[in-house]
Amino acid sequence: MTANQQIAANQYPAVQNTMPIPQQHHPPSSPRPAADAYSPNTPGGGTSNRVVRAKTPNSPSKNNSAGIIVASRAADEETEDGRIRNREASAKIRDAWIYKQIRSRQDEFTQYKQGRVFVGTWNVNAKGKEESLSSWLCADWHQHGPPDIVVVGFQEIVDLNAVNVAVENKSATRSQFWVEKIRSTLNSRQNTLGDPTRTYTELAVKFLVGLLVCVFVKAPHKPRVKYVHSDSVGVGVMGMMGNKGGVTIRLQFYDSTLCFICAHLAAHRENVAGRNADFANVYTKISFEIGHEAVQEVIKLGSMSQWAMGTSSVGVPDHDLVFWFGDLNYRVDESIPTERVMELSKAGMLEELIEHDQLNIERAAGRVFRDFEEGPLGFKPTYKYQPGTDLYEERPDKKLRAPAWCDRILWLAQEPGHVAQLNYTRSELNVSDHKPVMSTFLVTIKDVILAKREGVYRDVMKMLDTYENNSLPLVSLDRINLDFGEVRYDQRVTLPIVITNTGQVVAQFRLVPKIDEVELCKSWITVAPTYGMLIPGEQTEIEMTITIDNATAHRLNTSQEVLDDVIILRLENGRDYYISVTGKYARSCFGMSVDELVLYTDPIREVPLDPILRAKKYDLNSKAAMCVPKELWRIIDAIYERGLDERDLFTTTGDPDEVYQIRECLDTGASFEKFSVHSFAEVLTSFLSNLSSPIIPITLVPTLDIDAQNIQMFTRKFLEDMLPVPYNVFIYIISFFREVLLHEQMNRLSPPKVARFADGVTDASFIFAIFLTILCAFKSFRILCNCLILSQTGNVDDSVRAGSSSRGNMQQLMLHFLQTNSI
């Protein structure tokens, strides 16, 4: 005998009063109660002992609509070759596969327990009196023991009149009445025998107009119950009112999920289609918002057949066990006359009636309760009785109605072998025109061993990752940390990254901006290429280049920028790679202001960029250490020494290597070597053109016409309005060019050439036009040959919109300074 067979053979005689201590074993394949458990308990009952299960050969599988992957069409992505990809649907299909794998291995991490569930249903016809419910709720305790879960459903706890349906003003009161009667019955001294472990705790109550469902659990099991939620669906008047519909409670008991639905479907013998429609509406509309965490846990437990990944709600089929009960209102088919139905019912001759029972007919045809099961009807029809009696309603003043099994209990299990019906019968309480119906089930409950479950989950994910990695693009980068070391002003430094397609499919990559940003990287970095495609085994290089221009140098010098960035390389349909780019700026006098340069006697390379360290080393509030920047003095002094007579001075370009070395000497304080005077002249031009702020602010540019009578006044005003350090620099440069012009026979410079601003300027005048541009422009803006002078907002200043006038004014002022002793 196998373990499963032995468990099935021994489980029923050994039923305990409470759920037994769990033992790890395999679930019973098909637990069955003793043969007499289904024997009719009414005279003449000749029904079969088999459980009736609705199946049709060609019917679709369980909950066919729920089996469809639902994904938003808005998530569709069309590729260049016309294919449609939906990431939402892909994620759901993936999770469905994970669930299937875990469910197929659930025996590896699950131990199984046997428990009992009592389900009772009663249409009370708005009646109710103070009488014991023990003959209904506790009728089989002596045979099977107290159940672990007690579920009771009521219909018509209030009159279904228009007021009650619309307002529900009495439903809460009547619900409380019946809940208290159930509680007092279950926890009576007779039932508990004074033992606290035999008491029951209320888990949840849900009502809708005349419908009520309540769930009680035996006290020792309360800590193992969680995720208790309820819902209600009205399908009555206008398809939404609560005179008909369903109320439902779901919960997780140990590690199995249970759902209990109490329903009241459409009335009248001929309205079969209405009842079928009501069932479908209730079934599909029930939804429990249990939370994303609960959904994920249930999936990991292998306890969901369908779910909508990405949501936090579950429906009826998403449970291990579903119990559906209530006044379903299915009658005996009209092909049997009412009188004949009455006669057979009173005599207890049930076979013909069962054969023509509408619910059995509809289930066999696959039109309702597909895949649900119901035990054999071994009791007389429960409707319609004279209230207060055990007689069917046959009074002359009442309409004669055919008796029917309106009150039913069905169940649905993901594993059919996990449910066995121990009894299915009725009570003889007679306050209503319906008889109560009850059933006790032996159910197999899962108790998951979390450590083993996590092991299985890791195995499944590891296997999935292996296959997914083979189907996803995969690349390798030879490095993801680029350290450019020390980077100097006006220097371009490039480092490559080698990307290799190490996967088995085509890999497409591109650079993407960081969150909430537009640009791929900071302005001092250039990347090429920014996108590409590699076939398996192919490799390419991405070049990262750092360039410190004037604007970047200014931000670095003022601590508004650091050489640090992260670049994101995205692999389409794959992962993101984060590339770190760092460097250290070798500080330079280029890109600084003269006001800051005069503060330091040390070489600028030794002045910390960090403002805190700089403040510790220097007193930044003290007066300037020098009248003009030492760097400017060193350049001009070198030009003096190397010859003002040099032909084409300021028009011949310098040697690039020498220009770079001269800049380094200025920044480090090193001595000059024997560099060309033309290289020094170019460095002087570069130094002044890259100051972070102009020597002459735009506010000093004359806008009124200057002539011989007022030029002296303009020059005096011009000098008075200059700030001290720019004033010193301006005087120093004008004095230098006066000296240069003394050698005009050799260097071929002249005052008009030096001072002239005109289109097509050439030779020496071109160089000094640059100097005047430097002195009169802001940062990167220049007074170009067309003499457009820009304001600080970047717009043409209204006062200098007439460019030729301002250009002429500046020419006259510079000539005056160069040719007279006005300074």
Automatic annotation (TrEMBL):
Keywords of this entry: Cytoplasmic vesicle, Endosome
GO cellular component: early endosome membrane; phagocytic vesicle membrane
Biased composition regions of type Polar residues, renumbered to the chain: 1-19, 56-66
Database matches in InterPro entries: Endo/exonu/phosph_ase_sf (IPR036691), Ig-like_fold (IPR013783), IP5 (IPR046985), IPPc (IPR000300), OCRL-1_2_ASH (IPR048869), Rho_GTPase_activation_prot (IPR008936), RhoGAP_dom (IPR000198)
Comp. bias intervals (Low complexity): 20-40
Chief location bin: membrane
Annotated region (Disordered), positions in chain: 1-83
All residue ranges annotated as the Rho-GAP domain in the record: 607-823
Pfam family of the protein (one): RhoGAP
Compartments reported by the entry: Cytoplasmic vesicle, Phagosome membrane; Early endosome membrane
Coiled coil (UniProt feature): none
Protein name according to UniProt: Rho-GAP domain-containing protein
Organism name: Cyclostephanos tholiformis
Top-level taxonomy: Eukaryota, Sar, Stramenopiles, Ochrophyta, Bacillariophyta
